[in-house]
Amino acid sequence: MKSLHVLCITFVLACSPKAPAQDAEKMEFKNAEAKQTTETFAKTIETAKNRFAEAVGVATERYNTEVESLKNQHIEKMESIQKATTQSNDLDEAIKIRDAIKSLRELKIELPELQKQAALAEEKIRDLQKQVDELTVTKIEKQSPTLSGTWRWFDGRDTVFGMTGQATHAQQLHGKWRLNDGSKDSYSVTWQNGSTDTLKILEKGKLLEGTSTDKIRVWAVRLK
User: What is the pLDDT of residues 81-110, one digit of tens each?
Assistant: First the structure.
């Protein structure tokens, strides 16, 4: 079992993607701090890789032990069934069970395909994220079904409020919007430049009006 552990580690190290630290090690810096931090980075990457290989090795041994135990339990159960079948004079069935037991003893159960398992895990994560996004959209729709959409801003350019709280003005300035606590039609939009607009929807959802952090009047007309 020990040799399998070593083999597994060798396989993982051989198949691991090339770490950026390996390229960084080839660079020769005159700056002592740059050289030191690069060497430290390379060592930490190598340590992490070895830790991963060791964990895979331990998991492999545990898997092999568990599978071998399950296999032996199954063989014992099949042998018991074979004995009972033989005693009941069902010889044809007993012979089939005997042959199955022989095949079981020779059966080599392969390790799970790690890449396939990783792909399945990523797919599950994407599904979970999709569910979270859908729940978030539903929550925001219930809070404020009228803010999301495209608005013509007072400067003549368009602002898009996304369903999940994102905001984009003129495809350049980005931010986040939210429904103000205790309100059904008052919103705060915080832009990446540090400014915050406090807005309220008027005219049955057709007009957006309020003030910025600098107390400047802000307004927009819904396009869609």
Answer: 999 999 999 989 999 999 999 998 888 877
Polymer length of the chain: 224
Q: Name the least confident of 48-52, 90-94, 115-119.
A: 115-119
- Please write the tens of the pLDDT for every residue from 135-173: 765 555 554 457 888 999 988 899 999 888 899 998 788
Dihedral sign (CA 58, 64, 65, 67): positive
How far is the C-alpha of 71 from the C-alpha of 137, rounded, in Å? 48
CA dihedral for 22, 24, 25, 26, sign (positive or negative): positive
Domain ranges of the chain: 2-111, 113-143, 144-222
Residues 6+ positions from 213 with CB-CB distance below 8 Å: 194, 195, 196, 197
Fold of 144-222: Lipocalin (2.40.128)
Question: For 73, phi and psi rounded to 5 degrees?
Answer: -65, -40
